[in-house]
Amino acid sequence: MLKAGVLGAGHLGKIHLRLLQESAYYDLVGFYDPDEINAKKVADEFGYRYFDNINKLIDAVDMVDIVTPTLSHYDCAEKAIEKGKHVFIEKPVTNTLEEAEKLIEMKDRYGVKAQVGHVERFNPAFLAVKDAIDNPMFIETHRLAEFNPRGTDVPVVLDLMIHDIDAILSVVNSEVKQINASGVSVISDSPDIANARIAFENGCVANLTSSRISLKNMRKSRFFQRDAYISVDFLEKKVEVVKMKDAPENPGDFDMILQNAEGEKKQIYFENPDIRPNNAILQELETFAEAINNDTEPVVTLEQGANALKVALQIIKSFNQV
Predict the structure, then answer these.
(1) What are the Cα distances from residue 92, in Å, to 34, 118, 124?
(2) Fewer CB within 10 A of the terminal residue: the chain, N end or C end?
(3) pTM reported for the whole predicted model
């Protein structure tokens, strides 16, 4: 078992603490949080060991789970990597792209593993269809959330949209060509609603919308590709797969047949992929343990986390150019 320590005992940090304690892959050593009052409260309530010094915790573990505010991600990861510890870092990976690039260099130099917490990659609905998403040419995403003061210190792009940015980059095998975006601040100092259009070199276009002042929650993505339409509901953990194939010469009475202007006939049919329920956060943490134990590449690498951050920052920069 890998000895694990958590940095940050806020809302998400407490979830990570509980899951690491339950996991058969890890031995939870304890946690550190600079807020001593909150830290002692968490320690008293749940029985986790509280370290009053970050370096003491890092020294005592094999893997450091960084669940602190984004501004401190780099400093925490730097301390851990310099001591030869593997690091799991919540999204976004760092506050700036320069920081992410420094961590990539350090990770390679010290020979440690690093994974970024883009949890939607482990959503069971996405896992069920990911391999079926093949060269999509148009993607549309909507990630809407009811207002929550937590997280409004950063633009909605880094708070919500970055989930969809990472998922899109994981299935589109092409470089970004152009980004156009707009953002509106309604209740926060930073944009609460954003829309971005990402054009890729291979012709694929992704249209992303995010809002954190919606009246209802929604997390849906739609992928359009040759002869297929794939819809993923990340919130309800449901998928819809509609495909087309050449129509049979003698279609049945209930077969759905389409004919284009050239006279080609296609049959529409539906697939129902097997969605296997899981705890996405637990799965991402345990796949990281497997990468460490087997010396393999993590599912969400530091490089991929940096790429998602790069696109997110380009979107934010594009706000000022509209």
Answers:
(1) 20, 8, 21
(2) C
(3) 0.93
